[in-house]
Amino acid sequence: MIRIQSLTFRYEDSKVDALHDINLTIPDGSFLGIIGPAGAGKTTIAQCISGIIPHAVRGDFYGSVVIDGLDSADTPLTDLSRLVGTVFQDVERQIIFPVVEDELLYGLENFGVPREKIEERMTFALTHTGITSLRHRTISSLSGGQRQKVAIASLIALQPKILILDEPTGELDPGSSRKIFALLQELNRTYGITVVVIEQKIMLLCEFAKRLAVMDQGRIIREGSVREVLGNISRLEEIGVNCPRVARFSSLLGEQIRQEISVCVNVEEAEREARRVMG
Fold this sequence. Notes:
Layout: E1 2-11, E2 19-26, E3 31-35, H1 42-50, H2 52-55, E4 59-67, E5 70-71, H3 77-83, E6 84-87, H4 100-110, H5 115-128, H6 144-156, E7 162-166, H7 174-191, E8 194-198, H8 202-208, E9 211-216, E10 219-225, H9 226-230, H10 233-238, H11 245-257, H12 267-278
Parallel strand pairs: 3-8, 3-9, 6-7, 7-8
Antiparallel strand pairs: 1-2, 1-4, 4-5, 9-10
């Protein structure tokens, strides 16, 4: 479980809080999406969950982040990394080896994974991220999207209890983006891994996440099921969140016929609602 209580953080030399009085509980096995406009504090809260803040980033840190019973401020970053795997937007800073295979091997060997299980873990991670053919390629020869998949694969191979991903599909095409989310869903459902994703592709996120948290100006202004959060389209658009068109459609449809319409989260649901109203 991730329990964040009264969390406030201000970066060194900043005059304003990046996070202010955050309270959030993420139960084991959750699939949480975090959305909000640029500068809302999404990356900062991801760094707090991973332990990068306060261990590697300076600033004023108040409150607590407790990961699986461990207070992040009192627990060494190396210990936290065994529980929490993190992929940030700038994957270039995460990849340290020149060859894909060596990048995956580094984490597995460092974490003491038995030799007989290393190949199994590597094969699983490479296969499910769709990069088996890249195993012996140099990192310098890969595209941005391929490097992002390598970073994700290296974490999946470690099988952490919690996965934090900051815009994991930013460099990927629609097909690859959907495959990554399908993989995250499988890891969540089959292995019980807690998944927290910060994502701008909100329609895609809403198809896979179980809950959403909305951030604005360093605060969580709303948290709940996907339908609960998307039920207030006007507020989300007011703060600059690009809401899914299907959710906007169901909201406008309800206004036009002056009836309460269930919030749609995909095209199929929007089609069913339209047919129901028309027929």
